[in-house]
Amino acid sequence: MSPTVLRKLPAILVVDDEVRSQEALRRTLEEDFEVLCASGADEAMAVLEREQLIAGIRIILCDQRMPGTTGVQFLKEVRGRWPDIVRIILSGYTDAEDIITGVNEAGIWQYLLKPWQPEQLLLTLQRAAEVWRLQQENQRLSLDLRTAEPVLKRQVDHKQEKVKSSFGLAGLIRAPGSPINAVCDLVGRVAPFDLSVMVTGESGTGKEMIARAIHYESRRASKAFITENCGALPDTLLESELFGYKRGAFTGAVEDRVGLFQQADGGTLFLDEIGETSPAFQVKLLRVLQEGEFRPLGSNRPVHVDVRVIAATNRDLEDDVRTGRFREDLYYRLATFALHVPPLLERPMDLPLLARRLLDSSCAALGKPVEGFTNEALACIAAYRWPGNVRELQNEILRMVALATMPQLGADLLSPRVLRSPVGDVDEDRADSELAWAAGLSGGLKERMDQLEMHVLKEAMIRHRWNKSRAARELGLSRVGLRNKLFRHGLE
Question: Phi, psi at residue 224, to the nearest 5°?
Fold first, then answer.
């Protein structure tokens, strides 16, 4: 058959010996993928040999336990013949040894546990399809670089500039007057210098985006930006991930593995949730930062690297240093420069811009066009405190898009917790809360009136998302008069 056959949807091969499981997966995925099924390794291999001559399969979703073989064994063979296929294990049984073997021998991209949730499964496979696309793009870019004529080099440079515009300072969503602007200013000033940076802030505030911005605004922008969540792995796996290992270093180490430090050589390594690491691991990390070298597990030879390290945490590491939970010398090594990302609660003026950007990305992810939000929905979004910050907002908008049946997203699509916002709860007990607040005022009448005025000004500005014209109209002030009062109270 001709290799020029085109598919409208990316092809996925489901390998499972249970017919009911095959059908359930087919029903879940068939709107976004062309689903092919096989009941065992032999049948799946026959499908692959046929399909790879046509348009090719991008993803394999394989059960771990099958008659005659395992998913890892089958995917190991697939890796040898078709390494570009993204390989995923779906299993109700797994342990650390399965994971290590799967990563080492079969290059497993993801492990999914049964029973699976349709939404989570679909999002995972959509990301897998994007990984396949990026692999192909990277291969094309590598070929361009190896055979580069001046025109091709300009094309690559253009693509790199596009990446920088997406992930650098220009890609950070913020409104005039947003507290994040001060953070961006510091990012622009510290990025050119090879200083270690500690990014702090609540979970979901976008600490990784700040780290990416530092990388893409630095001289290392053309090199790799590697991320690792230190809180997601035990010490043994984290050490092997960061430092790599030699064949035979431990059970399951059947080939050499290059660690993330070495992969990031010349670029940036982002260590998220650094506060979750153990004191024993902190000692090993400190040595790498001090010496600029490390030894892969099972090796006697040090590896020298040039890596900029950016760490992030939602913990109070200074308090952890005082209690002995986090090493003081490592803290000061990592926190040469500290950046704090404010929570979304302190950035109400950013909500409309963030909501619009996240709506666009959600529509693209789900393949479902939506025009925008109703005024009522935007008002509810603005009233909610978003304790989960940008990550919670992203998930909420993704949910709204999935449920939408109209061109605009209405308030009826919001989760009950968002509709029951703290602002609404305050109204029920307004008298008691206001009396309690007033009781906390201090000083004479003039001092108390000043405190009351500042409270009223701040409340009005937050409610109007720092729109001075609207707040001034509500308070019966001119815009200049409002600005003078804001300046006097330190709110401007």
Answer: -75, 145
CA-to-CA dists, residue 302 to 223, 224, 250, 266, 350, angstroms: 22, 21, 19, 17, 47
| 3-state class (DSSP) for residue 36 | strand
| Interior/surface letters 256-287, b for 16+ CB within 10 angstroms, e for the rest | ebebbbbebbebbbbbbbbbbbeeebbebbbe
Could you tell me which CATH number the domain at 429-488 has? 1.10.10
Average pLDDT taken over every residue of the chain: 83
Q: How is domain 153-342 classified at the architecture level of CATH?
A: 3-Layer(aba) Sandwich (3.40)
* Distance of alpha carbon 368 from the chain centroid: 22
468-480 residue pLDDT tens: 888 888 888 888 8
**H helices of 147-204, where?**
150-167, 180-190
Phi, psi angles (nearest 5°) of residue 150: -50, -40
pTM check: above 0.70: no
Q: What is the CA radius of gyration of the chain?
A: 27
pLDDT in tens, 78-134: 888 888 899 998 887 766 676 677 777 778 888 888 888 888 889 989 988 888 888
| Eight-class DSSP state of 217 | T
11-138 and 153-342 agree in CATH topology: yes
pLDDT at 436 over 90: no
Any idea which architecture 11-138 has in CATH? Answer: 3-Layer(aba) Sandwich (3.40)
Nearest C-alpha neighbor of 276 from the set 310, 212, 339, 325: 325
User: What is the pLDDT, as a whole number, of residue 465?
Assistant: 64
